[in-house]
Amino acid sequence: MTPSITSQKPASSKPTSPTPPMVEEEVPKFHVPNITTKDLYSAIPRHCFERSFFRSSLYLISDVAWIAFFLWAALAYIPKINPQNVTLPHPAFYKVARGAAWALYGFWTGLSAMGLWVIAHECGHYAFSTSKTVNDVIGWILHSSLGVPHFAWRVSHNKHHAHTSHLTEEQFYVPKTRSELGLPPLDHERENLEGTKVSVDLQELLSEALEDAPVASLYWLAVYFLLGWPLYLLMNAGGQPSDPRFANYFIPSRPLFAPHDLKGVLISDLGIFLWIASIFYSIKVYGLSKVFVVYIVPYMWVNHWLILTTFLHHTDPALPHYQASTFTFSRGALSTFDRELMGGPGIIGKITGWICGTMTHGICENHVAHHICSKIPHYHAWEAREAINKRLEKDGIYVQGNPATWSEALRVMRECKFVENEGEVRFYKNAQGKAARVPVFLGEGVSDSGADMQ
Fold first, then answer.
1. How far apart are CA 237 and CA 245, in angstroms?
2. Domain-by-domain residue ranges, the chain?
3. Which is nearest to 49 in space by CA: 387, 393, 339, 334?
4. Would residue 199 be called left, alpha or beta, if left means φ above 0 and alpha means ψ between -120 and 50 degrees?
5. Of 418, 423, 412, which is closest to residue 434 (Cα–Cα)?
6. pLDDT tens series, the chain, 454 aa
7. Based on the number of CB atoms within 10 Å of its own CB, is 93 exposed (0-12), middle (13-18) or buried (19 or more)?
8. Is residue 249 within 8 Å of 152, Cβ to Cβ?
9. Best exposed site among 18, 56, 59, 126 by fewest CB in 10 Å?
């Protein structure tokens, strides 16, 4: 998904002067955590690991009820916005008013349907119920209704949890390296590896090569929000650059799938086939315009929320990415941020944050706890997060990011351009080649794996 600049004129690696001045900046140090998964687990109250089919089902019913309510209200009242029922100053206003009402319906229904996505996601982690069969059936039904190949996605998603922010094993939002973007090699005369010293002339060259303009960032952000999810499924966009170009989640082939994944991928494909067939049948019966406003617009909102939250969970100039030699499960789990979805300062920010966090079951607010143990159901994740944060504060570790808003996504898009080709722990650099943090190792010898605790 990151724009490639290999087709552009590459920035020159030759200095403009024999000894170009380098501008040095003070940046915060990042103390690479040595806390173990066992230590993190021990901080979580035991009842947070308990899964209740009854309680999970209540949230599922609530989400369906909200969607049904919004649909009923839209079908019952939007057609009544006409001259016989409402007086507006101009005939053209009736069409505009109906369009605005359908837009509101799409937004709220999409937000509620994102709650269903989160429940299906929990089924993929076996967090909905203690029964594997119940999780598989409900997850497949919910995800299929939202255009997600449930079992195929689950294979990749579990790999993501096992290798979060691993530079060569992560499954999505893999940062582009300097060489992959066609940038000149690291020039020690004009910059340093840490990204704290960069000459003025090199800053200008990098900025030009990376198209550091607000309009370019807005364009790529729109591409992320509108096409990010389907491109991820169809082309493995954002995955490892070593994967085949057209690797996708519908063909059970390597490297995404092993031979034993065949059955799950085929069942997932069946769900997608039924989903597409249902859409076409609905268009035949009700017409394209009705299906578009009733289903497709909310579906696009779900995809938008999914990309917004996952992008901001795993992308930020303050989040580390690890080479294999320094990666541990706990370091990966802590290389993600908790964020308040559409929150912010003031009463309005508190209200919007509470609404979005509640309707999406805290998937954005409690993401670190979810990565530490993905079997914790969302209704226990709030308490688990508080307990984990108290433990992390003892080591000076803070995992709360800025609120997940559109403006924050634009900031992150502009600040996270590339990582270096070398380094045990790497941070994104911006279009001027500057990094926001410098890694510091306080101790070695950590041996940790959370695979058996998932």
1. 9
2. 22-443
3. 387
4. beta
5. 418
6. 433 333 333 334 444 455 567 777 789 999 999 999 999 999 999 999 999 999 999 999 999 999 999 999 999 999 999 999 999 999 999 999 999 999 999 999 999 999 999 999 999 999 999 999 999 999 999 999 999 999 999 999 999 999 999 999 999 899 999 999 999 999 999 999 999 999 999 999 999 999 878 888 888 899 999 999 999 999 988 888 888 877 899 999 888 999 999 999 999 999 999 999 999 999 999 999 999 999 999 999 999 999 999 999 999 999 999 999 999 999 999 999 999 999 999 999 999 999 999 999 999 999 999 999 999 999 999 999 999 999 999 999 999 999 999 999 999 999 999 999 999 999 999 999 999 999 999 865 444 544 434 4
7. middle
8. yes
9. 18
Which tokens go with 352?
Answer: 């919007």
Q: How far apart (Å, rounded) are the C-alpha atoms in residues 55 and 62?
A: 11
* Model pTM score: 0.90
